[in-house]
Predict the 3D structure of the following.
Amino acid sequence: MTSIERTAYPHISSKKSISQKTLDTCYLLTKEELNHINQNVRSNRLRLNFAIQLKTFQNLGYFVDMKEVPCVIFDHLKKQMRLPHNLNPFYDHPPTLSRHRKKIRDYLKVTPWGSKGTDSAQ
């Protein structure tokens, strides 16, 4: 049977190893993304959280639980953002996570399924 990582359904796991090549291609923040994060998100922890949600959503097509994201991705993003190495990502309040996800959808111009009302495909 084919492993989940090799199917049409992308998957991420905190136990999964990620190559440097994948980090450099899939989890590299553009200058525009960095500017957007720095201008729209307040604290270092929230900036890191936002960046993690943004890059995993771009690469997987869905939002993941922070516990499922490998530490190597955290470290890679912290280096790019010049954040302290001992900063750990987590959300204190669920509404903040929801706001970040909405902002990411808006930034990427992604419409959630069923949000068009009566014109929705649902």
Notes: The radius of gyration is 15 Å.
